[in-house]
Amino acid sequence: MAATSFALAACGGGNGGDDEASGGDSLVQRAQDAGSLKIxxxxxxxxxxxxxxxGGYEGFDVDVAKYIAKELGVEEGNIEFVETxxxxxxxxxxxxxxxxxxxxxxxxxxRKEKVDFAGPYFLAHQDLLVRxxxxxxxxxxxxxxxxxxxxxxxTSAQNVKDDFAQDADLQEYAGYSECLTGLENGAVDALTTDxxxxxxxxxxxxxxxKLVGAKLSDENYGVGLRKGDTEGRTAINDAIxxxxxxxxxxxxxxxxxxxxxxxxxxxxxxEQ
Length: 272
Ligand code: GLU
Prior knowledge:
Layout: H1 2-12, H2 27-34, E1 37-41, E2 44-45, E3 49-51, E4 57-58, H3 60-71, E5 79-83, H4 89-95, E6 100-101, H5 109-112, E7 115-131, E8 147-151, H6 155-164, E9 169-173, H7 176-185, E10 190-194, H8 195-204, E11 209-211, E12 218-226, H9 230-245, H10 248-257
The chain binds glutamic acid (GLU).
Glutamic acid is lined by residues 86, 103-106, 151, 154-156, 193-194, 219.
């Protein structure tokens, strides 16, 4: 249900706000006034942001989102989670469909032209996922001529084009779960994105896939919010810092990444 509210919210005018990007309208105030928050997440990435069969949401990003909401005075039950696919994140923020986004969202200079980021709250690395019996893909070079899947609007797809696999046959899909289906049925030879996401898929499908273990990039996950909302950014940074200091960050990271065999790194330093 929350997946469709993305489109619905776009025409509903949100929570009384208007379209002008006035500097005074901070998400901190909106959270206080409304007692609720709309938070963008992924819903098909196990360990990060996943919709469960009962309609709930779980994962590291979901825990980060809930922690921030709590610090902003919003109870868990008053969070509306909204699916924000990779290619739609900047737009969702700019349109006001969401108050902020926690969705394996890498901080980049290009994105910073449109949105602001709090954090970073996690450091991941781009990697490759292949079928368990495939020994032909061992690094970026061996992708030449292979069908490589990644997702539109992601840094993963962009890095392939700009940097390390320009001769791969890149197929850009709308979501990672579609790429995973393609990998399983042979439509593609490899799936590339953050190792966090790939580890989640490998763990969910024991024995079918394996990570290559190539650290192809640094992906610093940030919390995306409306450009110019300095108050919101500071409040979210404070929440992330507190989550790190009181042990909740590590507990959440171990809960969601540990079972997938993903070695939890040190929390990154927050850019104030
Ligand atoms: N972290 C990368 C990005 O923000 C890849 C994962 C994703 O698409 O969410 O583009």
